[in-house]
Write a structure and sequence with these properties.
Its EC number is 4.2.99.18. Pfam families: HHH, HhH-GPD. Its cofactor is [4Fe-4S] cluster. By secondary structure, the chain is an all-alpha fold. The protein is built from 14 helices and no strands. α3 crosses α4, α3 packs antiparallel against α9 and α10 packs across α12. The relative contact order is 0.15.
């Protein structure tokens, strides 16, 4: 079974669209109102399917660098990092895991870990006692039930301590190349904001989006949506006026539609590219404003 590592980000079957020669069109309040009315009235399945497909192509062009932002080299390392990422940020987890992975390279090492030492090493990620319980329990179960090798099926993964369906899909998609949709906070709120689904339960969201997106693209759609949620489509104030998806978004106007104001909200290292997508030269754009952390969980 092949694995993927953070140093070589996995790509899905859908290729990233080429860099736009001209900026993408920006929605208008009138066009957004018409779309919102249509979605609220019950968008026809075919229309929604076509709109989702357009948004996926645009997401691929907007975030060609999308990947799992947790650092790992083995499936076990990704499982550990994903457990630690609960109520934490990828950046913080990545600062902790190098020493952790060196100290505990195998499932047996976690099973036999000194609890006090393990808790001290992961303390900064928060909820360290519960996370230590999960890591020790997971290591014990992997040793006792799977001969020390992390399993690669959804059913076996969710049976391990500390691993729920979301974590299992992260592991399957990014460590084993098995398509899975990761419904985290960003993913759930964006697909509802975009009118892809009205479901609130994460499992129902996963199934609903799975019906709209080809299975081969499930892992990458998770990365695209999460990247967009961290960098552009923030929870409290999305950067609507600097968003490449505006013409297909029924929630356009939730945040500022003025490009100058919206540009202040765009976050992350790919900010120049994100602004260029909508025709805002980075050297003319105002600096990114403080506030929502692009890497917030």
């Amino acid at each position: 079974m092949t694995t993927a590592s953070r140093s070589a980000p996995q790509r899905g079957a859908t290729p990233a669209a080429p860099e736009a020669a001209t900026p993408v069109p920006i929605a208008t309040p009138r066009s957004a109102a018409r779309l919102a009315k249509r979605v609220a009235a019950g968008e026809p399945a075919l229309g929604r399917s076509r709109r989702v497909a357009r948004m996926l192509r645009m997401l691929a062009a907007t975030h060609p660098d999308a990947h799992c932002e947790l650092d790992f080299t083995t499936p076990l390392e990704l499982a550990v990092a994903t457990i630690l990422s609960a109520q934490s940020t990828d950046k913080l987890v990545n600062s902790v895991t190098p020493a952790l992975f060196k100290r505990y390279p195998t499932a047996l090492d976690y099973a036999q870990a000194d609890r006090a030492e393990l808790e001290e090493m992961i303390h900064s990620t928060g909820f360290f006692r519960n996370k230590a319980n999960s890591l020790i329990g997971m290591g014990t179960a992997v040793v006792e039930k799977h001969d020390g090798v992390l399993p690669h099926t959804l059913e076996e993964l969710v049976a391990l301590p500390g691993i729920g369906r979301k974590t299992a899909n992260v592991i399957l998609g990014n460590a084993f190349g098995i398509p899975g949709i990761t419904v985290d906070t960003h993913f759930g709120r964006l697909v509802r904001r975009w009118g892809w689904t009205t479901e609130e339960d994460p499992v129902k969201v996963e199934h609903a989006i799975g019906e709209l997106v080809p299975k081969r693209d499930w892992t990458m759609v998770s990365h695209y949506v999460i990247f967009h949620g961290r960098r552009v489509c923030h929870a409290r104030k999305p950067a609507c006026g600097a968003c490449s998806l505006g013409t297909d978004c029924p929630a356009f106007g939730t945040g500022p539609t003025d490009q100058v104001q919206a540009a202040k909200l765009v976050k992350g290292p790919s900010r120049p590219h994100l602004l260029a997508m909508v025709g805002i030269p980075d050297d003319e754009a105002p600096p990114a404003a403080g506030g929502e952390d692009a890497d917030a969980p």
